[in-house]
Amino acid sequence: MFHPHRCIHTYVHQHRIGALVEFGLSTDFAARTDEFAEFAREVSLQVAAMAPVDVAALLAQPSIKRADATIGELLAVLSAQLGEPVAVTRFVRWSVEDAPVRQEEPDPSHPTASAATLRAAS
C-alpha cells in the first residue's frame, strides 16, 4: 500500500540503545494526533527493548505495554480510530554494545588531549 506521508519517531534509552521507526500515513492529520504520538512512542520503545528482526516480526510481537495485544492488533485499532490506514514501513535499532569497538591510544601531543590523558601518558 502506498503511503504518501511519512513520519519518523525516535527513542533513545540511556544513551546506549536507539530506535528510529518510520510510519506511513495517508494524510499528515494522523501524525498530529495524541493517539498516534502515543502509539509511535510505544512502537519505538518496543523496537528498542525487543530487537525484532523485521517489520513482520515487530507486528507479531506482544506489546510490552499491553501484553493482551500484539503491535499489529494495536496498529489496526489505531487505524480504525484515526479513520485512515497507518503502517510501520521500516525501522532501525542500534546499541552501543553492537557497535564495533575501536580502541586507540590517544596522542598526547594532540591539542584536544585531556589533562588526564596527558598525565597518564607521562
TrEMBL record:
TM segment ranges: none
Top-level taxonomic group: Bacteria
Gene3D superfamilies: Elongation factor Ts, dimerisation domain (3.30.479.20)
Protein biosynthesis in keyword set: yes
Bias type Basic and acidic residues, positions: 99-108
InterPro entries attached to this UniProt entry: EF-Ts_dimer_sf, Transl_elong_EFTs/EF1B, Transl_elong_EFTs/EF1B_dimer
GO molecular function (one): translation elongation factor activity
Residue intervals of the Translation elongation factor EFTs/EF1B dimerisation domain: 18-97
Keyword terms of this UniProt record: Elongation factor, Protein biosynthesis
Region described as Disordered: 99-122
SUPFAM superfamilies listed in its UniProt record: Elongation factor Ts (EF-Ts), dimerisation domain (SSF54713)
Name used for this protein in its record: Elongation factor Ts
Gene from which this protein is expressed: tsf2
